[in-house]
Amino acid sequence: MLLQRIRKAAPDARLEVSAWRTQAYEDVAAGRIDVALSAEAVPPTLEYELIFNLDFVCLVGSAQPVRTRRFTLKQYLQLPHALVETLDGQQTMVDRPLAQLGVKRRVALRIPFFIPAIFAIARTDLILTVPRKLAKIAADGWSARGGTAS
Asked: Is-contact 147 122, C-beta < 8 A?
């Protein structure tokens, strides 16, 4: 939806999307890049706008015997996880709140992108925490790959 809006408003604009890196905010401040989209806290020297909120759900590989619609925190932490690295070896939108509670997930797989992670866990015992919108997009083909959404 964001890309559609940008293309409609500025059809001649050239977009270049890259993976998040720790110096992205420095690049914005220095004028090397125009916009940084991030779930990270924005330095007070930069302007920012909240463009959407995300909530997360779990995709569960078909070899995982736990079949429940909701996990308790204790159950969630005991299960083996695939982690999509968004910054510094973490999936920050998941791992930072867990760290604030003083807990960590059991990570069995680290992978840098969501879509390959979805394919990777389908027939395993791993669970993958993803934005609900992505889970809905993936749901059409998910059952064909052997997994379920929770």
From this structure: yes
Q: Domain extents for the chain?
A: 1-52, 56-149
What does the DSSP 8-state code read for residue 22? Answer: T
Mean pLDDT of 48-76: 89
- How much is the CA Rg of the chain, to the nearest whole Å? 17
Query: 56-149 domain in CATH 3.40.190.10?
Result: yes
Per-residue H/E/C for 56-93: EEEEECCCCCCCCCCCCHHHHHHCEEEEECCECCECHH
Percent of the chain whose predicted confidence (pLDDT) is above 90: 49
- Sheet containing strand 106-111, strands side by side: 106-111, 80-84, 127-131, 56-60, 148-149
Q: Per DSSP, what are the bridge partners of residue 131? A: 56
